[in-house]
């Protein structure tokens, strides 16, 4: 394959990036760096994806929160795996209990439609099944950003200002 950094037939303004060994792409450079750091420590693509996603919950909380759900498609050893980690409803809520309170449908707003976040369970499941490094090590970049802080990205600064 011939790599020509001057050839860019697409309308987007993104600059092509090339790598010989590994690459992590995120909307926030520090999250991408977290994934790369995990790869340098011997982690695999799953470990890097978890590190980047967890870091994004700190670095871009308005875009990617730990309170959300997660979905994954993994291709490894010539086999496809899928994970649906959409959070379950809270244990104390049942269809029967809602019907007794007069609900015919799940309301669109309020506490009733809130689910248990699925993202942390997804990270744990993916790490256990496919990861090479312990989850505690993979989460260290996010923990470090949360404890020590980080430079505010222009995108996040703009979003916070608008809010």
Structure summary:
This protein is mainly α. It has helices at residues 29-40, 45-59, 95-100, 119-130, 135-138, 140-148, 154-162, and strands at residues 70-76, 79-85.
Descriptive overview:
Strand 1 and strand 2 form a beta hairpin. With 163 residues, this protein is mostly helical. Helix 1 runs antiparallel to helix 2 and helix 2 runs parallel beside helix 6 (140-148). The relative contact order is 0.18. The model has no long low-confidence stretch (mean pLDDT 90). The protein contains 7 helices and 2 strands, in the order H-H-E-E-H-H-H-H-H. The protein has one domain (29-156). It has helices at residues 29-40, 45-59, 95-100, 119-130, 135-138, 140-148, 154-162; strands at 70-76, 79-85. The longest helix is centred in the first third of the chain and has 15 residues, at 45-59. A two-stranded antiparallel ribbon has the order 1-2. The protein starts with 28 loop residues before the first helix and ends with a helix.
Helix content: 40-55%
Shape: globular
Average residue pLDDT: 90
Task: Kindly give the count of domains.
Answer: 1
Question: Beta-strand percentage?
Answer: 5-15%
Largest sheet: 2 strands, antiparallel
Number of strands: 2
User: What structural category arises from helix and sheet content?
Assistant: mainly alpha
